[in-house]
Design a protein that fits this description.
Blueprint (H helix, E strand, L loop, with lengths): L2 E5 L4 H13 L4 E6 L14 E5 L5 H8 L4 E4 L8 H22 L3 E5 L11 H14 L4 E7 L2 E2 L6 H10 L3 E4 L4 E2 L2 E2 H13 L7 E4 L5 E2 H11 L6 E4 L1 H13 L8 H6 L23 H13 L3 H9 L1
Parallel strand pairs: 1-2, 1-4, 2-3, 4-5, 5-6, 6-11, 7-10, 8-13
Antiparallel strand pairs: 9-12
Length: 314
């Protein structure tokens, strides 16, 4: 294998994947498309990355990207949007990828999905992810599917967001604090993708990518504040208030921090089922949250504001 197309390669997981491959397989060329060059600045300096401007939802552009590649990694996903938006990204795009691969004779695909996907799941995100999986697994291609839990890392939008909110507010209003997660380090997800690519025998299998332990949303919010140096008390909210809070966030300009669809997703435990192979089956020992998150949160957010104030007074 000499050339891999990484769809979504300029994103959070894609950046980690490109950096990992630059270290372990420097001879492998990675083709990373992006609609805007500015989005790919983090991976542009890597010696094994060819960054190109392209719209992967355009069939002709996608066909040109797939041609000449040995494998495709699909990381493209959205967390918020309408039914049509989820359908376009999580279902229609996989159909286009499958068609482009079939036309170009490319059989090897690694698709990153999510824990909790099901056709009858309570959220548009999980239902559309399940439909996208079905497109790939029923395609006749050599597809490996990875299902990660919530992913943490230096550039995540999960722990960093909660730390930032606690930096701004004296307390954290929190609904659905009992929602269960099994956070997985982005470096382990990247290593799992590489392991799947290197092992043709993984084709036709689904792997659950989860960390070594479960944690509730309340615990993760508490730890993010503690490690960022801004611990805040939590104000538990009833479910209806959490849904109203999410609705208000949807109405704000820009991409929302939380949506009602996210709330619906949290009603499904985001933890490994134990019925499918996990990271260990790919030769990966899951990294504990405590081994990574305290360092990057402390580096980004520094000491508590009152500590900085005391330091100035001295």
């Amino acid at each position: 294998m000499r050339r891999v197309l990484v769809l979504g390669g300029s994103g959070f997981v894609g950046r980690a994947l490109c950096e990992h491959l630059a270290q372990v397989e420097p001879a492998l060329r990675l083709l990373v498309p992006t609609r805007r060059n500015a989005h790919g600045q983090a991976v542009r300096p890597l010696p094994n990355v060819d960054l190109v401007t392209a719209d992967v939802h355009d069939e002709a552009a996608l066909a040109r990207l797939v041609a000449g590649c040995d494998a495709v990694v699909n990381l493209v996903a959205i967390l918020h949007g309408s039914e049509a938006a989820f359908e376009r990204v999580h279902v229609a795009l996989p159909r286009r990828i499958v068609a482009a691969c079939a036309a170009a004779g490319v059989r090897r695909v690694v698709h990153v999905s999510a824990l909790g996907v099901a056709a009858d799941a309570p959220s548009r995100y999980l239902r559309s992810k399940a439909a996208g999986e079905a497109v790939f697994t029923g395609s006749g291609l050599a597809v490996t599917v990875l299902r990660p839990s919530v992913i943490f890392g230096a550039h995540d939008r999960f722990l960093n967001t909660f730390a930032q909110l606690q930096q701004l507010a004296p307390f954290m209003p929190l609904a659905f604090g009992g929602a269960r997660f099994q956070p997985v380090w982005v470096g382990d997800v990247a290593a799992a993708i590489v392991a799947a690519l290197d092992r043709p025998a993984t084709a036709g299998q689904i792997f659950e990518c989860a960390g070594p332990r479960e944690a509730t949303l309340s615990e993760l919010v508490r730890l993010s504040g503690l490690w960022a140096g801004v611990p805040r008390p939590q104000l538990p909210l009833p479910g209806w208030a959490g849904s109203l809070q999410a609705l208000l966030m949807e109405l704000m300009p820009g991409e929302p921090l939380m949506s009602r669809d996210n709330v619906a997703s949290m009603s499904v435990p985001n933890v490994a089922s134990g019925t499918l192979p996990g990271l260990a089956a790919l030769g990966i020992t899951p990294t504990p949250l405590e081994a990574v998150a305290p360092g990057y949160l402390a580096e980004r957010f520094g000491p508590m504001p009152q500590d900085r104030f005391r330091a100035r007074r001295r």
